[in-house]
Amino acid sequence: MDLQPPSVLAHLPRPLHGSTGKTHLGEVHSLADSKKRKRHEVVVAVDGEAVNIYNIQTPKLVTSYAVPPQSAFSCQPCSVRRKINKSLVRRQTYVAVKQQIKSFVEENGGNGSSAPSIGSSSYSVTDSESPAVFVGIVPTETKEEEEEGSFDVLAVHQDGRVRRLSSDLKTQHWSLRHSEVAKTSTTHEIRSCFLVEFEDAKKSLFKRRQDLAALAFGNLTETGVDEPSVLLLVSQPIGSQHTKLSDVKVQMFSVPANASSAGHDESQKMRHLITFNLPDIDGPETIETRGSQWYFHAGSAGLNVSFGQGYINFDLSQYTPTMTSKFILENEEFSSLMRISPQSVIGAGKSMIAVYDTQYKSVQRNIAVGDIPASASGIKARTTFVSYYAKLGVAIATKDNTLLAFDLSPSHNTANPSLKRSRDGLLIDAIGRGIGSAKKHRTEDTAVLGLSSPEEVERWNKLTADLHQYSEAQDADAFDRAVLAYFGANGFPSPEDYVNPETTVHLLSLIFKLKDDASSQDQLSASSSFRLSINLWPQQTCQWLIQIGHLSPNNVEIALRRSFKPRILPSLPTGSFIQALTELDPSLQRLIDVLQGRVLFSTDELAYILKLLINTARSRSVTLDEEAPKALTNGEDQDQEATTQALALSHAEPSLGNIFLALNTTLEKIHRHPLPAITTSIRSALSRTEIISMVHHLRLSLATGGYTSRSTESPPIPVPAEQTNPPISLSTIVDLLNASVDAIGPSGWISAASGVDDSITARDQELIADLKSEISAALAGIEEATYLKGILHEYLRYANSAIRSATTTVAVDSGSDTPASAMVRLEKLNGADLMVFGATEDDDGLEGDASGKLLPLSLKAGSNDVSKTKVKLSTGEVKTRSSREIGYLRRKAAGKYSFERLIV
C-alpha cells in the first residue's frame, strides 16, 4: 500500500456563518433489487449554502441543490440513485435540518429533455426536539408495478427516538423510542448509528451468533425475501467530556423490510437483538468525547473509535465484544483516523499524515501536513477523513473548504491492474519503521551498541549529550575532543579494529542534517523537498570515518532516517551526498579525501561525480583562458570590498590539479564495478557532450601513459602533470572507453552523423578515426609486450619463484657479507634507465663467473632459505613446519667443515 500525493477534487463552498457553520459529508448509494451499493460519489451539505454531490473517480460536480440561508444541518446527508427504467434515472438526497427532514428529488431523461427536473419535499418533526444524528435508507420489498416504494427513510434522533418515513416523506410509518433505549435515555445519548444489510450481517456480524440471526430474521423462512436491516446504536454518557469505554453501550436492532404501522407491538417495528457494553483496555482509561469518531466496517464486523491519541477496533461478532487492534500514540494529537484495511489505518496528526500498521505499530507511508494543498486561509486547518473507496484505493478527506483524495493504491498496480487485494501488514514492511512509546525505557540500545556495564552506558550517555550540545553550537573542535576522549588514550580505532556501526551512524546523524529546499516553488506536492547539508565538519572524526569506510552515502541516509522518525524520509536523490561535500568545500579537497578512502559508492553516485567534475573542469578551463577584465579607475582607487570578494571567489574555486585528481580517482573507482552497470549509469547521468569530453580525457591518459608510442619514437606533446595525476591503468582506460562508446550507442552516433551541422559531424568522424588509430597502436604495443613475455618466459618464471620463496621462507645465514645492493646496478641503454641484477664485474673489466648468469634447469630460485611449509607426499596437504624442524634443516644445510677419510 502506498500513499500518493493528494489531489484536489473540489473547492467546497464555505458555510454562510463562518464561525459556527459546519460542513457534513456522506456517502451515495445505488439501489437495485433491494440491494444497496456504494457509488464513487460523495454528498456534501454546507450550512446555509447548498447540498452538492461530487464524483470521485472523475472529479467533477454532479449536481447541486440550494438551501435557505438559515439552514443548519445536524448530521451527515444521504443520497440514493436509482434507475427506474431504461431512460429514467432518479436521484433522491435526504438531509436533516433542525426539526425537519428534507428531500431533494432529481430526475433525468423522464420527459425526453436533457435538462433535469428537480423537486423537494420535507417532513416536519413535532414529537421530538432532539436533533437528528442519522438519516439512512431501508430497502423494502420491490414490486414490478411500483416505482416509488422501493425503500423507506430511517431517521434517528439524539434522544433515541427512531422514525420511519416513506421515500417521498409524505407518510410517517411509525415513530418510537424503544423500551431498551428508554432505559438509558436519562444517562446516555446516541452518538452514532449504522445500518447494515442482513446479507452482510450474516457473513460477519452474525457469523458466530446464529441465535441473533434467527431472532433478526423473524418468521421469514426463505432467504432473500423481505430480509430485514440491522440497526446499530452507539450511545455515550450525557454531558461527559471524557468517556470510559466500559460506559459506551452498543444496542442492536432488527428493522423489518416492510413497515408495520398498524401494529402496536414495538417488536414489529424494531426488534431488539442485544445490548452490550464495550470492554476496558490496557492504555488510556478514557477517551475524549468531543473529538471521537465512530466507524463500523460491515465486512469484518468491526466497530472502531478514533480519538486524539489513537484508534481502537472491537470485533462485535464474538459473544462479547473483543478488542482486535489498538494503536495509541500518547504524544500525538490526531484530528482524524480511519480504517483502510484490517491492519492499516490512515491518520492526520500534528505534523504528518501517515498510513500506520496497527499490528506492528509502525509507519508505512507518510507526507507532511504542511504540504497538503489548502487555501491561504486554511493552512492551519486540520484534515478530517470521510470515507475510503477500496476498489479505487482512494481515501476522501477535507481540509478547510478543500475536498481531497489520497491515492493509496500500490504504484505497481498502475501498469498491471489486478483485482487481488494487495498484501499489507507484513513484518518486513514494519522493520525499521516502528513507533515506540515515549514512556518506554529503551534498554535494547545498550545491547545494540554492545554496552555491557553501567559504566559504559554512562560514558555513552555523556558522549551523546555532549555531542548534541556541540552539534547545535557547531563546535567542530569540541566535537573531535569529545569523540577522542570517548575512545581513550589510544585515539581512534584502526581500520583493522571492529567498530560498532551504531556508533558511527549516531555520529553521522549529528554531522549531517536535512534542510528544507527553499528553492522549490511546488506547493502542491505531497512530499517535502529536502536538501542534504553538513551541519559541522569535525576534521579528525570525519577523517577516521573515511579511513574505516563508514562515511558513505548509505550510512548517511540510514542515520538521517533514524533521526527523522516517526516520519519516513523519502529516498535521497542521487548526488545529494556529493552536493553536500562540494557546498562545504568548493575546493574539492573533502571530496578527494572521501574518494581516496575506503568509502563504497554506487555507479550512479560515481557517474554523478564524473558529470560534476567534467563540467567543473570545462568551466574552469574557459575561465583561465579568458583574459582578466581590466578595471578603469581614472585615477581613483578600486573598491576594496569588490576586490576582497573577487579574491575570496578565486580561492573558493577548485584548482585544476584537484579537479583532475578527483576525476582520475573517480575513473579508477568506477572501474571496479561491472561494465554493464557502468554503461547504464553513464548513459543516464551524462549527456552526449559530457561523454565525449570523458573520451577525450581517456585518450589523453592513453597517450601520456606511453601505451600508444614506441620506445624509439619521440614522446608526445608535453601535458601538464596535474591532468595525468594519478595515472590511469590501461585496463581502466580501455574498459571505460568501451563503456562510453556503448553509452552513446549506435543511435547516438547515427543521429550525430545525420545532423545539420557539418562541423560537428566532421569532428565526430575525426574522433572515431583517431580512436581507431590509437586503439590500433595500443593493441600493437600489447602484442609486442606479449611477444616479449614469451621470449622472457623462463626469466619471468624464475623471478616469480624467487618472489614466492622470499615470502614463505626463513632466512639462513650463508656466511656471505656481500650486501644485496652490490648485486644491483643501474645502466642506461638508448636513453632508457635499466636496473641490472647479477654479479659484479672484476676490477679488470672482465666478467665474473659466467655460471652466475645462467638460470637453473628447474627454473626455481636457488636459496639457502628454509621453507616455512611442506607438502605431504601422500595427500598433498600443506603443513606448517615446526621450529624444531626448521632448525634441523638449517643445520643440515650448513657447509661441511670436517675431513672425509677415503678407504681404498
TrEMBL record:
Highest taxon, organism lineage: Eukaryota
Domain Utp8 beta-propeller: 26-81
Protein name: Utp8 beta-propeller domain-containing protein
Residue spans of biased composition, Basic and acidic residues class: 24-33
Renumbered residue ranges of the record's region Disordered: 11-33
Provenance organism: Aspergillus tubingensis (strain CBS 134.48)
InterPro entries: Utp8_b-prop
